[in-house]
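Example 3.2
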Amino acid sequence: MRLRAVIAYDGTDYGGFQRQTNAPSVQAVLEAALVQVTQEAVTVSAAGRTDAGVHAAGQVIAFDTAWQHGLDDLQRALNAVLPADIAVLEVAEAAPDFHPRYDARSRRYRYTIYNAPVRWPLARRYSLHVPKPLNVPALQQAAQCLVGEHDFAAFGQPPQGESTVRRVLAAEWGGEPPWLTFDIEANAFLYRMVRSIVGTMLMVGRGEMSVEEFAAVLASCDRSRAGPTAPPHGLCLMEVKY
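Structure, written as tokens:
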């Protein structure tokens, strides 16, 4: 049977979700746990291939198994053998042809900023410290430029194919100072798109770029005009919708 699971992980010590030869990956750890628990060779597919250092609170995976016991038992067994930085939040049966990536309608990411003069060491793994005060209304105006269907070539490259057009369903800043969060939901994302957008918007927040200039960067489709790519540790895959 095909199962669907929701996974959370701290991506700090991984080279990304996808299995690779030169770094530990979340996929490899999950598959090793499944082999240990089910005694089967199991291959996992995921809704998104998060980059090295990126976290997830709502990653969705799917896999096939002949597991004969209850799904609650499977969840407990997996969590018992997984390392502390990965957890299985939910397990459910899925349609035989379910694919977490291709069946997804949208994904929502969150980037977290700690905006204060002095860094907060307890936040260093999950947020970017920005010491200079940020203009939140300007950030919000810049975020609204992203909503709708646009060519996002200025902010990333397609993971496959050639199209850089994506549809952003929502983009907004929130949180309470000193914590700021940027949430963005889209039908799909380019490689490093969210981090590139955040890095460029921070220029707006610091007064180094106007909202109009930010909109011009988006319209230009020119990657060289965007700001620096924000580091991965502030980014988290929050939710996948089907």
